[in-house]
Design a protein that fits this description.
- This protein has 298 residues and is α+β, with helices and mostly antiparallel strands.
- It has a 5-stranded mixed beta sheet, sandwiched between helices. Strands 2-1-10 form a 3-stranded antiparallel beta sheet, with no helix packed on it. A two-stranded antiparallel sheet has the order 4-5.
- Helix 2 packs across helix 6 and helix 2 runs parallel beside helix 10.
- The protein is elongated, with a radius of gyration of 22 Å.
Length: 298
Amino acid sequence: MHLNLLSLALAVAVGLRWLSQSLGMGRGSWQRRWSLSLGCFALPPLLLLSTTLAIVIMGLRGQMWGMPVGDWSYGVSLGFLGLALGRLGLEFRSLKQTQHLMQTYAPLPPLLTDGVPLVGRLLPHDQLFAGQVGWWRSQLLLSQGVLDQFSGEPLGAIVAHEQAHGHYRDCFWFFWLNWLGQLTPGLPQTEPLWQELLLLREHRADAWAAQRTNALVLAETLVSFVQHCRQTSIQDSPVGLMALSDRRAFHRLEERVEALVQLQSQVSLVSSGSWGVGLAWGLVAIALPLITIPFHSS
């Protein structure tokens, strides 16, 4: 019976992923795109985690709804949970290493953006780099190249964009989303959904920053920043870091710039409220398999 339960969870997980394609991922309002991508990306691994946890809790012996349980489903579930915990441990270790490295950098010089002093760390190299480092309370990290290349309004636009990632706790939320994605790389649509979430994350940061700085200056700075980074060897961001110079954020640049230039009001709808909806559906996905535990008898 446990094997049937595991098979059903896998079928639902695959169905949810294909649902994102049939419903038109990447089309519609920003709110719709955010909710659809977040739900179809996160719910399948959450469902598999809660199902395997329920099977492990029920154990090797007994019956469920009058049908015997088997060893094979228990072994698969235990292995999946072990893999998940091991992967999570590696992610936390990488996060700690990144945070420790961050503390070795000197504080930013006493520069001002819109009259507000910069607070963060200085990365001592000439390549352009701007990012948020950390987990729940992330810190700003700017390279010397950014301070040499930009000043005034453009520098303020870069800082505002990174402050948006801190405001929305993107380091924290995408730490968990990245972990969930790594648990189920074989499920369909994993990479397209992940790229869509990264794009929407940047749209949200752009929209937040545009409310605090000149949107046209932000768009021009974004193009200049990305064009320069494409000519350098900046690597993908490590765990716990949201970087403007991350190559994964370069895709669909035209869409981001167009949204800023047109000042589309619907961009602001990609808000933290979407996380509340996603969290509620996540709790439902976790609870459904767990409520089957009382139906198991030894």
